[in-house]
Design a protein that fits this description.
Helix content is 53%, strand content 17%. It is α/β, with parallel strands linked by helices. The strands form 2 sheets. A 6-stranded parallel β-sheet has the order 5-4-9-8-6-7, with helices on both faces. Strands 1-2-3 form a 3-stranded antiparallel β-sheet. Catalyzes the conversion of GlcNAc-PP-undecaprenol into ManNAc-GlcNAc-PP-undecaprenol, the first committed lipid intermediate in the de novo synthesis of teichoic acid.
């Protein structure tokens, strides 16, 4: 077992990606401490697709390795850790962690900044967050349709708002590298990529039914709802085969 020097979090390396071995409760406690520290912390919710992407792209792998906390969001990541004899106690789903952070933040009157998705979705998300967590202040929001030219202005707006939490919904191939590149400039204590979470919170999309969640098959539900995702989903069986074929090397750094 490796212990991360930054957050003192026990991790297991999955093909070089240091995945947290904390359960949801302990993960939340670490992030509460992160907010109190006021130092920038990037949280990545890792799944097999992201691990495979990191293996193919050194820059993406660098972003993963430099993140302060990587939680086992994908069922495949949890399975891999268990398969190689370094089990994690439970899946820490990014969508659930987002809600846990907002719920905890009510007690501390935290401020959250929402970045990503469309203007309509982010507006509806902000309203829903206000309804569900009245103790949280949505101190700012911006859609995800901006490029490198606008980065400076977006960063300035976030710094001005001075949030405790920054949730970024721009897709894993964009949100993680963007946070990683600018986290020191942003200066937000907890920054997390949340993918399609705003769509679900706003009501635009539905989360997988409880049965799919219980069977750890949310990926299958998403594929059934969006068949166009099949090419991306091919990384899942490739990851499983790689873990089984290279069992002795999975945890080598």
């Amino acid at each position: 077992m490796k212990v991360d020097k930054v957050t003192n979090v026990p991790t297991v390396p999955i093909f070089g990606v240091p995945v947290s071995r904390l359960n949801m409760k302990d993960t939340l406690n670490v992030l509460i401490q992160a907010v109190e520290s006021r130092r920038p912390h990037q949280v990545i919710t890792a799944n097999p697709i992201m691990v495979m992407a990191a293996l193919e792209d050194p820059m993406y792998m660098s972003v993963m390795k430099q993140a302060e906390l990587i939680v086992p969001d994908g069922t495949g990541v949890v399975w891999a850790a268990n398969y190689v004899g370094h089990p994690v106690p439970e899946r820490v789903a990014g969508f659930d962690l987002l809600h846990e952070l907002l719920a905890a933040g009510e007690n501390y009157h935290w401020k959250v900044y929402l970045l990503g998705s469309t203007s309509e979705v982010i507006q509806a998300t902000a309203q829903r967050v206000h309804e569900l967590y009245p103790g949280i202040t949505v101190c700012g929001k911006h859609d995800g349709f901006f490029g490198p030219v606008e980065d400076e202005a977006v960063i300035a707006a976030i710094r001005e708002a001075n949030p405790d939490l920054l949730f970024v919904a721009r897709g894993a191939d964009t949100q993680e590298p963007w946070i990683g590149k600018y986290k020191e400039e942003l200066g937000v204590p907890v920054m997390m990529g949340v993918g399609g979470s705003f769509d679900i919170i706003s009501g635009k999309a539905k989360r997988a039914p409880k049965l799919f969640q219980k069977l750890r098959a949310e990926w299958l539900y998403r594929l059934l709802k969006e068949p166009s995702r099949y090419k991306r989903m091919l990384a899942l069986p490739k990851f499983a085969v790689k873990v089984m074929r290279e069992k002795e090397n999975v945890t080598k750094v």
